[in-house]
What does this fold into?
Amino acid sequence: MKSYVPAYEMEASRDLSATLGRMAREPKIWKPFAGGTDLMVLLEAGKLPHRKFVSIWKLQELRGIEENQDYITLGALTTYSEIRRREVLAREFPLLCRAAAETGSVATQNRGTLGGNIANASPAADSPPALLAYDAELELVSTGGSRWVPYHGFWFGYKQTGLRPDELIRRIRLPRNKRTWKQYYRKVGTRRAQAISKVCVAAAAHVDAGRIVDVRIALGSVAPTVLRARETEKMLRGEKLTPAIFREAQDVLVREIAPIDDMRSTAQYRRMIARNLLAEFCETIS
Amino acid sequence: MPEVVAKIRVKCEINGREMTLETFPMARLLDVLREQAGLTGTKEGCGEGECGACSVEMDGALVNSCLVPVFQAEGTKIRTIEGVAGDNRLHAVQRAFLTYGGAQCGICTPGMILAAVNLLARNPQPTTSEIREGLAGNLCRCTGYTKILESVVEACRSTEQRA
Amino acid sequence: MGAPVIGTSVQRKEGREKVLGSARYVDDLTLPGMLFGATVRSSVARGNIREIHFEPGIPWTEFTIVTAKDIPSKNCVALLIEDQPCLAEQTINHPEEPVVLLAHPDKYLLEEARRAVRLETEPLPAVFTIPDSLARKEVIWGEDNVFKSFYVEKGNVDAVWSRADFVVEGEYETGAQEQLYIEPQGMIAQANPADGVTVWGSLQCPYYVHKALVRLFGLPKERIRVVQTETGGGFGGKEEYPSMLACHAALLAWKSGKPVKMIYDRAEDMAATTKRHPSRTRHRTAVSRDGKLLAMEIDFSLDGGAYETLSPVVLSRGTIHAAGPYHCPNVRINSRAVATNAPPHGAFRGFGAPQSVFALERHLDRVAEAIGLAPDELRRRNFIQEGQTLAVSQVIREKVDMAQLMDHAFELSGYHAKRQRFQEENPQSVIKRGMGFAAFLHGAGFTGSGEEYLASEAAVELTREGRVRVFAGSTEMGQGTNTIFTQIAADALGLGCDRIEIMQPDTAMVPNSGPTVASRTTMIVGKLVESAAHAVQQSLLQSNLLKPGYGAQDFDDACRQYIDKFGALQSLIKYEHPHDLHWDDQLYQGDAYGAYGWAVYVAEVSVDTRTAEVRVEDFVAVQEVGKVINPVLAAGQIEGGVAQGIGFALYENVVWQEGRMVNGQMTNYIMPTSMDVPPIRVFFEEIPYDRGPAGAKGIGELPLDGTAPAIANAIANATGVDIRRIPVTPETLLTLMESVHA
It folds into this structure.
């Protein structure tokens, strides 16, 4: 049953500073609205209780992709289409590009934004595992200033992030230190395109002389938040690439994740897939 | 009863024509196109951005108009199915759909044609795989996609021949 | 006279409007002063309505409110019987049952109001499964929950079991499937005591809707008018349900005195309207050592939901198709459709046959395995031949060569070589591949005496300008009715397609050609159109105003002269049942269908053992259909049907909770996208059926019968898993694969 559209307000402020000012003056009153690919679905389903939105879609300060020696920095309003088109991302951050390509459809990718996806905090989102695997950092801005926080830990509960009501995500930066790492991304969805993820794995490993020097393993759809499999990483760090090690890692992983039964899939299936995708990752890095 | 907010006036260009649309800020662009602008070619199939029947181009990008609040259409250039055919000629994609059976019941057709036209504008000679991917956001229940793909392939071929 | 157009891919008659976006579907139409209508539905699967509360905060005086009390004549949606209420009055029998209707000019406020109607109900225990319904845990319909049952007997199965070399048993299940036409259901109604009732809407069967409105309002037939608007897909989902929606819209129009538009949103459409009947089939088959079928005992059950709707007919078709295109001397079929507290299930392309054919073709692969024969060899040794009888004792009097169809399908798909290669490669591969097939038939037209009972009519009229108007109650919904009728009429008259006009199905204008269902439109109604065209042609020839071998100009002149001299020139043709078709409704035996489409479909699948995801890699569909009237349209029907069959086999899972569909969104009810469907390769063979127009038989439903079992058999071949149920979701397949390895 659709929402009562005439009760919904949307305004826009002149620029980022004015937007932040509005959000500071009336905290929790005005919620930011980017491309709408999540919020409009809720509106249509009658599941959007909040009714005042400040459109940030035109804020140029939140757009653009910058490169320097150490980081690639993406504006929060970078769309999935823009991510897919950017060559340096395809070369150095393929997991993020894969995630972008698997998000919805062309139409969704044109309006879906990285910042919006992060703020929406859906456990089944496709990009968060890639962001975790890359040690992403977020710049959060308010009238009080700006702060950089690691993405890991920012999302701490079901639909709960460290974003304060008067803050916006301004930028996401990815350290350029995994260029040489072996990288793996796989999303298992309900079908080949436009699919909600059942399990999603983004992983990267630095391997030297048959040993795992360092590793990142992140999963979506197996916990109330995106999950960084720290125990599994800890177990693998320093180890040789042997089948026995990989089997042990699978056992550790299964204990770290907390998948559920829902309309789309079962906990049992998700556990098995998580194991199997980890195994596939291990094969990839061997 | 929740309070009704003030209507806004949104200025945009639709199929080359300047239009001012007066409506609620979070009315769906889909509804505004169909009702205020009288352009019923864009269809609602699901209301959740899954089926693509509501696809339009906004500033050259394919979007699901059921997910765009009309507020954000301010100052944009929109093209709907009504804006695809030229003055007296069908677009190559439309011609191909007629010859190759790309449309059966026709309800997905406007969105599908927009998606195909948009794809070819970005990638004039896509592979079959790229066509499948480019149209994956447009669901068709009648055709099984086979003749839609054939139509798009033919549209590319005939465009290339002319170029 | 022009070159024949039958057999050529004439462009879709209404194609130009469709590609321009100017085709008008019901939601594209408005009438002055129009209100929007919405439905308030029950909240429990079964119970008694205590009270209806209209919560404060809504300006209720602005609304038109309709309940069962407002129904002028009988509170029912008349179909085969009158058991389904139009609006629930006291008792509720399923969780989407309509109770209150609301109308208002503001469609947003209407939704807000819908939220503010609260039904106070006293729940009653409900049943949700076939076993519970059969066990009569609760009797929720009639005396025993059984809408209909059939018993078919041929020979004597009981004499065979003890002396057979092998007896193989199995139980198979299919789930509900949502038709998922991309255009949701919709109606506009205008109704008042002075003018009567008119409805415009997305529908397949204008005369079904007409009948239901007559009964609801108690008005004479001439005061009710039903007009079909451009329809965005039906697949059976708009066969019976539009009657309900038309009744609702008309009641609101009647009470408000204004036109009312009701368009379902996708969630409501999925949850509340009909779906394919879930099924359970039990097979017991006796077979000789050399692979001859000796006896087949089949127990076939359908879940009909809360009211009868079309369950008896779905059951009928499923029953008749249950033993397939094989010869077996001894057959017993026990079947029944039972009631559960779910929204009523209804017509969906295939109509019972996809359910029973899935079971049969899975079962026969298992029978072959049990006796050590290749699955195709088992089929080959039992395919029916001309002169033999099907399970319902119908003597096959048409040419049929299933073995040749199978060989052709195998050749095109590389079945044997691939099966061999996959067998060798699979053990070393994470991706297992397999080949599977299904051999099947589909009867065209209504069963038995059904066509006789329908007594369909079609008419052709010539205008003074020489234009040819075709009047038929058959509807276009994408399958090509308009174009096929155009081609038939054009060739019957020896003229071009441009002068042929297909009149909009409007009960004020067109005769009752029967419903647009059952793969009958080309074969049965097309034949009437052909005959009507010939009849007007004969009138012209006999009047001597036209000579044989005439050209277009001659025809125009003759029309003008004839009409000036004699008045209107039209011909109405009524269906005549062939005298040599005999069907016994009591024994359920005889000539079930005038003609059958025969087919063999082959699927190639890959299964990723890491994720249990199944991909259909290639699909070959070979069928013998009498005559292909329009190659592009015909192939389009098969391709679209195969895609729906792929959904039925792999993706389309209705998640039920207490009788309610809880995944009623396109995000969660999964149909294939363009990336989920392989190249679908379609091949036709033609053995003309002398009673069809130009020899054509029906094909619309055929692809739904064979696709899912071909895929299921391919998965079994790839993985060694014994598939018994569809959809084969990765979740269930993963569990099954593990038990194979254990």
Observations:
- Chain C is about 30% helix and 25% strand.
- The first strand of chain C starts at residue 35 and ends at 41.
